[in-house]
Design goal:
Blueprint lengths: L1 H8 L4 H13 L2 E2 H8 L3 H14 L2 E4 L11 E4 L1 H10 L11 H5 L7 H27 L6 E10 H8 L7 E9 L3 H11 L5 E10 L5 H6 L1 H11 L9 E6 L5 H17 L7 E5 L8 H4 L8 E2 L12 H6 L29
Parallel strand pairs: 6-7, 7-8
Antiparallel strand pairs: 1-3, 2-3, 4-5, 5-6, 8-9
């Protein structure tokens, strides 16, 4: 193993190491998702991933489809785990990866769900990289610059907060408006008066396999989480965003979620603010059809539509908002005087 690592040292680029770590953190990523994370061309992505698979740092498989062919899916291989252990100065025996165990995800019934949720976050990364490139190049009309500052998988969230809730992921998105005065007026037309900022959010990625009552019942756990977050959060709670893969699913889901949230609100229970959006996550690469998850896809529930700057609540839940605009639609966090046990360092 030591000799293999020595040989790899001169062959892996910084980008290779970033890709290996991303695959390790999120269990499985497709070619297109890795391209969104770190490359500018899918052709060069495919070529480099083939090299990494040949070196034994990544393993790959293609799920069977009834029609067409699936993209390559990449998981961590034995040498990839060894590379990360060396970087983290971790005992290799504690992080050994069995190739067959990594590839077991290929037959998991949750594969499509996991890949879809990862695709939501990699699309956010692509949005950030695209706007950063536009800003750097001075592209006319590039009004904002995005940053995905945090992306935690379900497993990473569980290590932070245990089984308090079981979201599909957690993120922090920051969006900064350009300061060029010539663009401010145009930016306000696009964003309104609540442009830019940062938003922390849990993700519930919904593929339609649960009935709407099951979906709404998840709010009970998030009510408990809200109590934890209500202290020392600068009057802001993380958002809970429901990501639907079909437009037809969203209206009924919103009714069920709003009914459950309204009951809790009447009893004065602390809740995380909720928004919904549709992101098909098409692997065919139809970015125009999928939309930009950082863009105006998000519709807050009526229960939480209270703008902080005197706007009417109707504006809040009848107009789709950018992800970074959600903090403008936020009920004040209640003051909780009881300390949170074990949560001080989680966030």
């Amino acid at each position: 193993m030591e000799l293999a690592l020595l040989e790899l040292a001169g062959r892996l680029t910084d980008r290779d190491r970033e890709v290996i770590r991303a695959v390790a953190d999120h269990r499985v990523l497709t070619t297109g998702q890795i391209c969104d994370l770190a490359f500018t061309s899918e052709v060069s992505t495919r070529h480099r991933l083939a090299v990494l698979a040949g070196l034994g740092v990544l393993a790959r498989f293609r799920p069977r489809l009834d029609r067409g062919s699936a993209p390559w899916h990449y998981v961590l291989d034995v040498l990839g785990a060894a590379v990360l252990a060396a970087e983290d100065d971790t005992d290799l025996d504690r992080v050994r990866v069995r190739r067959d165990k990594s590839l077991a995800i290929a037959s998991s019934p949750r594969l499509a769900h996991l890949v879809g949720c990862n695709g939501f976050f990699t699309a956010l990364t692509l949005s950030a990289r695209t706007t950063q490139s536009a800003v750097t190049a001075g592209t006319r009309g590039a009004l904002w610059q995005g940053h995905l500052e945090r992306w935690w998988s379900a497993q990473q969230v569980a290590r932070k907060i245990g089984d308090l809730v079981r979201p599909d992921g957690y993120g922090r998105w920051r969006e900064e408006r350009l300061e060029d005065e010539s663009q401010i007026e145009q930016a306000q037309e696009v964003w309104g008066s609540h442009a830019g900022g940062a938003v922390d959010f849990f993700v519930e990625y919904d593929t339609g396999t649960e009935n709407l009552n099951q979906l709404a019942s998840k709010l009970t756990g998030y009510q408990k989480a809200a109590e934890w977050f209500a202290l020392d959060q600068d009057d802001r709670l993380p958002w809970l965003v429901f990501v639907f893969t079909r437009h037809g699913r969203e209206p009924g889901a919103r009714r069920a979620l709003n009914e459950t949230a309204s009951v809790s609100a009447r009893y004065g229970q602390i809740q995380l603010p909720i928004a919904t959006g549709v992101f098909p996550g098409d692997e065919a690469g139809d970015r125009e059809r999928n939309g930009d998850p950082a863009g105006p896809l998000w519709l807050p529930l009526e229960t939480f539509a209270h703008l902080s700057a005197g706007e009417s609540s109707g504006w809040a839940y009848n107009k789709r908002l950018r992800l970074a605009q959600l903090p403008a639609v936020h009920p004040p966090a209640p003051v909780v005087n009881e300390p949170r046990v074990g949560m001080e360092d989680a966030w």
